[in-house]
Amino acid sequence: MADYDVLCIGNAIVDIIAQCDDAFLETNGIIKGAMNLIDARRAELLYSRMGPAVEASGGSAGNTAAGVASFGGRAAYFGKVSKDHLGGIFTHDIHAQGVAFSTRPLEGEPPTARSMIFVTPDGERSMNTYLGACVELGPEDVEPEKARAAQVTYFEGYLWDPPRAKEAIRQTAMLAHEAGREVAMTLSDPFCVDRYRDEFLHLMRSGTVDIVFANAHEMQSLYQTTSFDAALAQIRRDCRLAAVTRSEKGSIIVRGDETVPIEPLPIRELVDTTGAGDLYAAGFLHGYTQGLSLGACGDLGSLAAGLVIQQVGPRPRQNLRHEAERAGLL
Amino acid sequence: MADYDVLCIGNAIVDIIAQCDDAFLETNGIIKGAMNLIDARRAELLYSRMGPAVEASGGSAGNTAAGVASFGGRAAYFGKVSKDHLGGIFTHDIHAQGVAFSTRPLEGEPPTARSMIFVTPDGERSMNTYLGACVELGPEDVEPEKARAAQVTYFEGYLWDPPRAKEAIRQTAMLAHEAGREVAMTLSDPFCVDRYRDEFLHLMRSGTVDIVFANAHEMQSLYQTTSFDAALAQIRRDCRLAAVTRSEKGSIIVRGDETVPIEPLPIRELVDTTGAGDLYAAGFLHGYTQGLSLGACGDLGSLAAGLVIQQVGPRPRQNLRHEAERAGLL
Question: How does DSSP assign A84-135, residue by residue?
Answer without folding.
Answer: SHHHHHHHHHHHHTT-EE-PPPBPSSSPPEEEEEEE-TTS-EEEEEE-GGGG
